[in-house]
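subagent[fold] <- orchestrator: predict structure for attached chain, return tokens only, no commentary.
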Amino acid sequence: MYQDPKRVRSRYGAINLDQYERRLIDALVDYTGIDKAVLLRQLVMKEALETLGIASLDTLTVPQQAS
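subagent[fold] -> orchestrator:
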């Protein structure tokens, strides 16, 4: 079914947000039109790549206005 079975996504963890953080994420979802889970995954991956110093990879699809 998949060319690379290791690329199949599964639940990895959960985050706890306060009311203000949730409102910020909801605003980003409304602004970008991206599904909440997709947006959060992209933001986490973007931050991880930046932390590792390899943020120049073209693998991210987070819109510029969401960064």
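orchestrator: received. Logging for downstream: Residues 17-66 form one domain. The mean pLDDT is 86.
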